[in-house]
Amino acid sequence: MIRENYLGVDVCRIDMKDALDEVDRIISNRKPSFVVAINPEKIMKAQKDESLRNLLNSASMQIPDGVGVVIASRFKGGKIRSRVTGIELMENICKVSAKKGYRVFLLGAKPGVAEGASDILKKRYPGLNIVGTRDGYFKDEDEVIENIKASSPDVLFVAMGSPKQEYWITKNMDKLGVPLCMGVGGSYDVICGNIKRAPKWMCSIGLEWLYRLIKEPWRYKRMAVLPVFLLKVLFGVKRK
């Protein structure tokens, strides 16, 4: 896949169709792989954390999740033109899985949330085979890994918050043997209605961050990362 590199972090030059084509390829190959969503906050964290930067760059696919990444690409003459958000990719993977028979496992979030998301997703995408769910509040990691392995999923979604979920995936990916693993943050809560997403029109024009800031003003420090990221990008960034 063609990638652009911003402040040392790779981002795939893809849209949703490309991402889903790559998902099919990964599942077909059966080699344990993982997908990570890239936004300015993660890129800025990776500036001070080499292990995080290496982890992000080791993914099979880095989706352009944040509007800041799209803006940066335009500034630097790149060709990333649209976001591929984590929750939208997750839902599209579920839609494809319902048609193609991919087996899905939901791991993470508070007790009861993964089960609730599973029920909603199965109603939303008839035929979707969710072979297991497990909350993220477990003590016996080996038992969880064996549970997932016994379910033989093609896709494993992990909701533990980032980058914890990505570290967990890469630590256990080879043991799990699941072709496609993806960290999905708070997506189960969004699906269950516990967290409200911005209206579609705001998402479509890249203003989801503003909606979240209005709803959760205490996040302003995290939102302040975006202008800092863009200023850093303007002073030189390598693309590949």
From TrEMBL:
E.C. designation(s): 2.4.1.187
One example of a Gene Ontology biological process annotation: teichoic acid biosynthetic process
Pathway terms, separated by semicolons: Cell wall biogenesis; teichoic acid biosynthesis
Highest taxon, organism lineage: Bacteria
Keyword annotations from UniProtKB, A to Z: Cell wall biogenesis/degradation, Glycosyltransferase, Teichoic acid biosynthesis, Transferase
Stored Pfam families: Glyco_tran_WecG
Role played: Catalyzes the conversion of GlcNAc-PP-undecaprenol into ManNAc-GlcNAc-PP-undecaprenol, the first committed lipid intermediate in the de novo synthesis of teichoic acid.
Family indicated by similarity: Belongs to the glycosyltransferase 26 family. TagA/TarA subfamily.
UniProt-recorded name of the protein: N-acetylglucosaminyldiphosphoundecaprenol N-acetyl-beta-D-mannosaminyltransferase
